[in-house]
Structure formats: C-alpha cells, structure tokens
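Hi everyone, sorry if this is the wrong subforum. Our group has a chain we'd like a structural model of before ordering constructs, and none of us has done structure prediction before. Sequence below.
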Amino acid sequence: MIEQIGIVGAGTMGNGIAQVCAAAGLSVTMTDISEAALAKGISVVTGSLERLVNKQKMTDADRQAALKRIATTTDSAKLANCDLVIEAATENEDLKIKILKDLCTKLRPSALLATNTSSISITKLAAATDRPDRFIGMHFFNPVPLMALLELIRGLQTSDDTHAKAAEFAKRIGKVAVTAKNSPGFAVNRILCPMINEAIFALQEGIATAEDLDAGMKLGCNHPIGPLALADMIGLDTMLSVMEVFYEGFNDPKYRPAPLLKEMVAAGHLGRKTGQGFYSYGK
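Answer:
Right subforum, don't worry. Here is the predicted structure as tokens:
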C-alpha cells in the first residue's frame, strides 16, 4: 500500500504533485536543492489550496490538513521511508540519471521509483537504477491539480506489479490513468508536440498570425487553448528539448524542431515563465 510519497523537485510539476497527493490523504516529503525553492513551492501550494476553498471545492479544514501532510527538506536521505518517490526535476536526461542514482542509495529496496518525464526513455532511466523492475514513468500534466490525466509509461523492465501499484496510486489521487509503452513522447506528447511544432512552422512561414493560428485551433477544432499559447505555458525550452528527443529518437526529419523555436529559446523568450514567448505576459 502506497502511503508515504517522496517528491524530488519543488517546481511547477513537483509542487503540483505534492498538492494532489496531500489532498488525497497521503503523507508527502518534498525535496529540492535549496530552502528558497522549497518555500516557493509551498507558497504555490498554499495559494492553490486557498483558491479551491474560495471556490468552495475544499473546506478550510481540509486545506489545513493537506498542508500539514507536506514536509520539506533539502536532504534526500529523509526519503528513506517512502513507499514511492517521484522524480520531478528539469527535463534533462543527465540530471535525472544523477538524481535517480543518488536516490537508490537512500531508499528502501522495496520502494517504487518513478520519473515525471514527458519524453525521456523510461527504459534508459530504469537501467540507471538498482530497481529497474520497480521503476515507471508517471507523466503528470500541467497544472497538476486541474488536469485529470496521468500517463503511465512502462519501460522494458517495469513489472506488472509495479504498473498495477502505479495505476492504483493514480486512482487514489483522483487521476485517470492511461498506459503507454516506452517510445519518444509516449502517447500524448507524440501527438501534441509535433502539432505545436507545426504551428510554430506555420507562424514562421507567415501563414497566419499567432493570434489567428490559436483562434483557428480553438474555434475550428474545439481546443481549449491554442498551440502557441500552450507552448508558452509548457515553456519553449521544454518544447525544444522534447522535439530534439523526437528528432534523435526517430531519426526522422518530420520531427525536426522549427528554426523559430530554436531562435526563441536562444533569445531567452521561453514563454510565461520569462514573461515573453509567442505572447507577452507583462513581467
């Protein structure tokens, strides 16, 4: 039974995962490299829970109880008693492997280990651990508290028992799980990211303005948000990383990142998090 959750990374994805786990009654220990990052993460969770109370989707007592279930630390050794640890660091393969190897020296042999990657090979990450059969991909979607989906990705080594426990965990925290095999982009991003990349090509070629491209997809295809606005939300650096994984993984030119995407990242225009992407956000 999974009751104690460890989360590595207090950023957007990490604090969102912490919130949904704590709200579901699970005990959470969230780690990061600095107290400042942890404080920022808790601040985001606090604000998010307060909004739920204001919308009458949560009682104030439940809000307080959820916050009390989240402990923070810069010492990964404090994750030793966790049943499941979810790595939610930056989408960088070398960094993830370094974190996972370190975690393996701290965790109980029976603990499950998961990564919140959106594109990196689960099989390759699993091979870097001491428990490849108890390793699985858990791809949460941003914003985690609002998005219902949890994509579970099985590496070649992932056992049936690990997958079953991950699916039960998804249900416990109120997510709907879909399962994908290990392949660049898995299932959802395999479809989504090339679509966004194509929208960037269309903008680059002057087919239409950013506003018109997004309006076209919202009003003509019933998408809740346009692809360029979504790219800004995801982060253009993350989008570029994903497309590079596709390009290298499939060795197929149809996945080449749009030159404009590369230019935007080189300029530091990464979307909402920097205040400037395909749109300006007033930062």
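For your construct planning: The two ends are 44 Å apart (CA to CA). The chain is about 45% helix and 15% strand.
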